[in-house]
Amino acid sequence: MNAVTLISDGIFLENGNKIVTKEFVVNHSRSQEFDETKAAKETMAYRIMMAHQTSEGDESLRIKFDALTSHDITYVGIIQTAIASGLDRFPIPYILTNCHNSLAAVGGTINEDDHVFGLSAVKRFGGIYVPPHLAVIHQYMRETMAGCGKMILGSDSHTRYGALGTMAIGEGGPELVKQLLGRTYDIQRPKVVAIYLTGKPRHGIGPQDVALAIEKAVFKNGFVKNKIMEFVGPGIHNLSMDFRNGIDVMTTETTCLTTIWCTDDTTKEFLTIHGRGSDYKLLQPGNIAYYDGLVKVELDKVESMIAMPFHPSNVYTIKELNEGGQDLLRQIEKNAVDQLDNKELRLMLPEKYHENKLHVDQGIIVGCSGGLYENIMAAANIVKGKGVGQERFAFSVYPSSQPIYLELMRNGALGDLMEAGAIIRSAFCGPCFGAGDTPNNGGLSARHATRNFPNREGSKPGQGQISSVALMDARSIAATAINKGALTAATEVDYDDNIASYHFNDKPYVNKVYQGYGDANTAEELVYGPSIKAWPKIEALTDNILLKVAAYIDDPVTTTDELIPSGETSSYRSNPYALSEFALSRKVPEYVGRAKTVRDWEKSRQDGVINLELQNAYQMINDALNLGKSLDDLSKSTLVASMIYANKPGDGSAREQAASCQRVLGGGANIALEYATKRYRSNVINWGMLPFVTSETDSRKLAVGDYVFVPNVRAILLSDSDDFKAYVINNGKKEEITLHLGYLSNEEKSIIAKGCLINYYADSKSNNDKD
């Protein structure tokens, strides 16, 4: 039963529910009525983008957002960068939450030092501060900030509030810095794909099941990559608000740019319950709207799903997984281990199959996707009066906010869960990124969370430790829990589908959240802990650049978790020097040492000293290309930097540190076949590195230790050309390759030329001061 169908050709949507194909338009001579250019302006996405457009036209967008949000892994670096660039106040609401390093459990005082810095910053610049354990970032934004027609930018990849009528985008920190300085989010108008929902989910089906069904259909083929997913169709009205939010937040895993949904009375009721009924507005497409493709989701055909290691798109139905037995599990394990550098490690998946079912060691319901009120209520209904057993299987539940926790406590659901043997924890994102509930070696955790990348469960394959995560809906996790860890679809369990009405109690926020927007106090001193460090000085791009390949990654996709691991490394996000030591540590352990060597060469070049290694490199370039330049002239005009090659880097998190760590270590460029996400490419640009792409043929000419010389790189960057002739050189041999950057705005070109966003703003401020 295939629940998801893709239509790759452009389609029209008439009156919000009738699908009209281009073929139909042509065959019935209705092209005047169904005008593609005109109808493209009738999507909800187009209208909201244009309402936030600050420039002329509708192709090159210059967006200003209504609010910003960050958590405690990202906000220190963002504010530090903004301060270095001239920040004096927060011009729009900026919400700082503390849901990632909430436990303050690793690295001594450094996590709590960040929290203290965050509070001092919102007092000084006029922001909003949500203390640890009070709410996870996206639930707080849903409850207090999202509204119909708004746009919100967050420094977390799962910034998604489309179900509430808000186009929300997750980006790296420098994009938030631009907004804090009154600048714009610059992007070419993205394409829009309709997500057409029909039918009604069956008993036992939850939002994660629907999300995984969509993910399976669209990720590998890039169907919605960097596009906007616009949710339409009659099926929307059959979904509760929590159900919509649960699907919406998982769209990040499709690599789409953002989402927007039709709104209705269900949306209005949610906003009204949360005291913000005035933020409701009816959103729906125009009478005839044009989309660049369509994903049809028949909700009544969706089954209980499971995403196996190591990606949310590695999706099966629970039924086919159990029926596939050890043979299927062996193949899944082989495919997963192929992504690891240590091929001797075992996930022990076939060994977990007995009595005709896969058995898991944990069940966890957590975070912005799992910890929603209705998910936990459904789980409580399933386990009520039953038990999870006294063996190894463990069951943990994390309500995503204190108001949700309060309501579950008031209506008795927490009691039902606890009596069954569940452990109730506070609002915390840890299990989503490898900082909580790490299973045993060889353990398998079933989680209603956002990701199951390698190490997202907290294991350390580099040290011979390996565990893994399967993504499931809270309902099937609860069904599995009452069967003592035997994988069970919620559709197989008889339980009460009725969910008690939700009552929002804002007292935890009223009594604890610091509400300082619009009340900046320049006399407030920023509180710096000893591990909060400023960014290093970064040089501008020279006429030429000499790159040395420090890592060559031939995997189909490279995640940001592999570029800079999550988990305990998150504690060092406020110290760029300490954090950079972890760069590629789980993928290419030799990378840091190689990059530091090249960084030392560049440092000596800046000091006017050409050390022996650099002399040899320059001489090799001179000889291979017959440049006829003196080493002194070549040194003055040629910056030297390390670089990473990867086929498709940047899938996953928005964390800017995946790029900034490369820069701190002396990185000057990446070369790829393509970039997995716009947000990672933007991070590379904002940190002043060249996001080169090349052909598969030319990529094979590269190897670790090679030099890549790009002459006239600065002039070509600032011109209208996008053809960079480069030379791969090693042992005196040279091969010519062609590199491209793709579309760059004039500002992005200037950022790279200046060396980084900080330099760009510092130079702009200096010029303004002179004026």
Automatic annotation (TrEMBL):
<dbReference type="GO" id="GO:0005829">
    <property type="term" value="C:cytosol"/>
</dbReference>
<dbReference type="GO" id="GO:0006099">
    <property type="term" value="P:tricarboxylic acid cycle"/>
</dbReference>
<feature type="domain" description="Aconitase/3-isopropylmalate dehydratase large subunit alpha/beta/alpha">
    <location>
        <begin position="48"/>
        <end position="478"/>
    </location>
</feature>
<keyword id="KW-0479">Metal-binding</keyword>
<protein>
    <submittedName>
        <fullName>2,3-dimethylmalate dehydratase large subunit</fullName>
        <ecNumber>4.2.1.85</ecNumber>
    </submittedName>
</protein>
<keyword id="KW-0408">Iron</keyword>
<dbReference type="InterPro" id="IPR001030">
    <property type="entry name" value="Acoase/IPM_deHydtase_lsu_aba"/>
</dbReference>
<dbReference type="InterPro" id="IPR050926">
    <property type="entry name" value="Aconitase/IPM_isomerase"/>
</dbReference>
<dbReference type="GO" id="GO:0003994">
    <property type="term" value="F:aconitate hydratase activity"/>
</dbReference>
<dbReference type="Pfam" id="PF00330">
    <property type="entry name" value="Aconitase"/>
</dbReference>
<dbReference type="InterPro" id="IPR036008">
    <property type="entry name" value="Aconitase_4Fe-4S_dom"/>
</dbReference>
<dbReference type="GO" id="GO:0051539">
    <property type="term" value="F:4 iron, 4 sulfur cluster binding"/>
</dbReference>
<dbReference type="InterPro" id="IPR015928">
    <property type="entry name" value="Aconitase/3IPM_dehydase_swvl"/>
</dbReference>
<dbReference type="GO" id="GO:0046872">
    <property type="term" value="F:metal ion binding"/>
</dbReference>
<dbReference type="InterPro" id="IPR015931">
    <property type="entry name" value="Acnase/IPM_dHydase_lsu_aba_1/3"/>
</dbReference>
<dbReference type="InterPro" id="IPR015932">
    <property type="entry name" value="Aconitase_dom2"/>
</dbReference>
<comment type="similarity">
    <text>Belongs to the aconitase/IPM isomerase family.</text>
</comment>
<dbReference type="GO" id="GO:0047868">
    <property type="term" value="F:dimethylmaleate hydratase activity"/>
</dbReference>
<keyword id="KW-0456">Lyase</keyword>
<keyword id="KW-0411">Iron-sulfur</keyword>
